[in-house]
Amino acid sequence: MKYYDKLIFELSKEGRKGYTLPANGWETSLDELPEGLGRKAAPALPQVSEPDVVRHYTNLSQMNFGVDSGFYPLGSCTMKYNPRISEEIASMQDFAGLHPLQPASSVQGVLRLYKELSEALSAITGMAEFTLNPFAGAHGELTGLMIMRSYHIARGDYGRTRIIVPDSAHGTNPASAAVCGLEVVQVKSRADGLVDVEDLRPLLDETVAGIMMTNPNTLGLFEKDIKEIASLVHGCGGLLYYDGANMNPLLGVVRPGDMGFDVMHLNLHKTFSTPHGGGGPGAGPVGVAAHLVPYLPVPRIVADEDGQLGLDDDSADACGRISGFMGNFGVLLRAYAYILMLGRQNVRMAGPLAVLGANYIKESLRDCYRLPISSVCKHEFVFDGLADQESGVTTLDVAKRLLDYGFHAPTIYFPLLFHQSIMIEPTETESKETLDSFIEVMRKIAAESASEPELVKSAPHSSPVGRLDEVRAARQPVLTYRDYIDCSVK
Amino acid sequence: MAFAYFPHTDEDIRSMLGRIGVKDLGELYSDVPEDVVYREEYGLKDAMSELEVRRYFSRLAAENRKMLSLCGLGAYDHYSPSVVASVVSRGEFLTAYTPYQPEVSQGTLRYIFEFQSMISELTGMDCANASMYDGPTSAAEAMLMTLASTKKKKRILLSEGLLPQVIEVVRTYAGYHGVETGMISCDGGQTSLDCMKESLAAGDVAGVLVPGINRYGIIEELDDFAEAVHACKGLFVMYSDPSSLAVLRTPGDWGADIVCGDAQSLGIPLCFGGPYVGFLACRKEFVRKMPGRIVGATEDVDGKRAFVLTLQAREQHIRREKATSNICSNQSLMALYVTVYMSLMGPSGLREVNELSYGGAHYLHDTLISTGLFSDAFSKPFLKEFTLRTSVPVEKLQKALEEIGVFGAVQVGESLVNFCVTEKVCREELDKVTEHIRRTFAVSPQNF
């Protein structure tokens, strides 16, 4: 990767333009707008030519690392290969050109896709019905919690305002609960990394709306007491929420609905391989068991007796409306294309191959890196830093050194249960050769940490920029080009 | 069993299992209780080849009808130059994730910084975040932000002039958050200043949300609004169409503290409502209450200019339940989409887009009225979207438009219909619409 230092604003020159538009043949003009409604001065947007734009963004892209560039073992993010056919399908004009308010009769193909994708997700997860409206995983969590609250309230059970979240949960779980107006109660993990059922038991009473579980959890461990937990939580009148961020290892093997979960979300960008886009767009469909179907958000797909599909905006029990229209339709298209290619045959292999890769790396590196929990893992696992802590080389250093060797770093310093967490998730689309070269590099870094610790501590050495001054960025925030000019002038 | 996306040969699997020390893949699930393992056939279709998938979607696509859109109401059919989709489809952008490792994510971080800068320019705010899901959810987050910034207050006010989906989403979020939502009525098609003042007088208002262009397409005149809200120690929030802000008075100039909305109007395809991209901008004093990712400039160890995610102490992965929001991944690639669009268009291109849309919209407005079947509902200034009162039954009007492949005349009130014209629509198309309506309804009123 080469360093390229321009911002688009710095290529700007008064009078340049990068567009062509039809000549204006209308008789009216914006000058007619009443005084006071118009903008005082034109916005300081860049003035650049089309070739400038193409070259600038191509240069920027070359400072980026994606799944297309190389192995991206970012734990809990499921960075699979993204098939290109999906991109082509999403850009078809008979999908991309549709206004979201068009009459149902003119978008039957779209509505059928919503229906078929929902049904496929139900088949995969064992849930009764899905809404495809949530835009992302965290948005799905919030929607799921709204559904849970609506259910309790509809039953006149107003006092259920607490939600139980394991200490190993993703940060979005407690944050979503807070946005939904719920009080978060933490349940501890045992030494073996699983939810402590004995710690859970006394927390359960008539104030509990439910529990949010990730299974396998963020340590990559299957919560084998799940049936007992389900029966305890249901026993106190609470509901079970399944955080689908870690669904990948269960794909083709276990269905959340069969474990006793009442509500769940899926991250289609993870499990069903739509591009992560530098942080979205994703999709976070929410599935519910039969008793929660009335509380799904609007709009919903409905069918009349002739099989004509339509949208229902108005449903008394619905938890509300959580999106402007019907979610990230373009992402849903891509995910469905992936599911069709998987089909009922290949889906069986997805989870097991992901789990195979994770265990293979774990067993190949456990002599060099500290493995706090050694049982069989699912799609990911966590090391707690280097086995040899003498050199003072930290998890951050190891992550940065990996960049020098052409790999993306794993997730680091999460989960919070360990001080030096390195969370590795390889996914099923990586070959043995890729995993072998990653293993070799990880061993090499461990060796370097002992022999040349400074080399590792000062990594990366080959990326476009070295380690950044993050403290300065936060203390004196420079958040726009205008800020940047101002602080350069000073 | 080979599958294009799974590179494992049987030999690979055997040797990997050997290293792990298990006999088969099933043993990797030995910790999963037998009774939750799914043994039945999955209710999915047979695996398809790429060719079959293509055919499948072609058939689905053929069940849709792409129409000429003369509808706005939160989704605008603007033209996007070819460069935009081409740049955005580069694998290095497409297949990266959140820039947690800034040393190998300078591409993403720089375009987010550019996006923040451009949104700030358009809105007249000091800063903006990296993106939100869509317009309505950005409005909900903006209103939660007013609650966090004005401690202990429990009410928010929304203009009835906001798009219905914005009102519904904000109400949903607010309801679960334990916040009371009051409505400000419209008077003559505009948000009523008097009604707002009355509601403010009742006290306890953290924030007020008013549209820049309202559901009737009217450009709101907001003199004295910000002052009145600030006098009650609340925050003034505007819901704006960023494309229009290239030519309309900025929310900053109206005295707004926070601006939210959907940046779809900056060239993002209609795509049945998503993916779009919400935005959120504010004055600097509120930045630490802002949800979502924020990118800042800094330097690396060698003094090179570089960019990084900053002010992360606001976010869920650090603060958990005390975070400003639960938002995590959202619409980063779509932020790139509109950043490339804005780079190409620049100030003059955006102005031309607005001029062309304004010209076309006013032409359609006048020619429809000339048929005698429509009248102006409010006689207030508008840009590209407007509302007419019609003497024709709305459903028949819509059907007539459908006959010629046009989508428009969406009902926004009793006998009130919405139209929207962008630079993509030419005079011949508009003439055809008016002519068809004239022929269908004007000649023989007994037809309806």
Explain what this protein looks like in three dimensions.
The complex is a heterodimer of chains A (490) and B (448). Helices cover 35% and strands 10% of the residues of chain A. Chain A is α/β, with parallel strands linked by helices and 490 residues long. Chain A has a domain of 256 residues: Type I PLP-dependent aspartate aminotransferase-like (Major domain) (Aspartate Aminotransferase, domain 2), CATH 3.40.640.10. In chain A, a hairpin with a 5-residue loop joins β8 and β9. In chain A, α4 runs parallel beside α10, α5 crosses α6 and α10 crosses α12. Chain A starts with 49 loop residues before the first helix and ends with a helix. The mean pLDDT of chain A is 97. Chain B has a seven-stranded mixed beta sheet with strand order 2-10-9-8-7-3-4, with helices on both faces. Chain B has a four-stranded antiparallel beta sheet with strand order 13-14-17-16, covered by helices on one side. In chain B, strands 1-15 form a two-stranded parallel sheet. Chain B has three domains: 53 residues, no CATH class; 112 residues, Alpha-Beta Complex (Aspartate Aminotransferase, domain 1), CATH 3.90.1150; 259 residues, Aspartate Aminotransferase, domain 2 (3-Layer(aba) Sandwich), CATH 3.40.640.10. The radius of gyration of chain B is 26 Å and the shape is globular. Chain B has 14 helices and 17 strands. The mean pLDDT of chain B is 96. In chain B, a hairpin with a 2-residue loop joins β16 and β17. With 448 residues, chain B is an alpha/beta fold. Classes of the chains: A alpha/beta (490), B alpha/beta (448). Chains A and B meet through α1, α2, α3, α4 and α5 of A and α1, α2, α3, α4 and α5 of B.
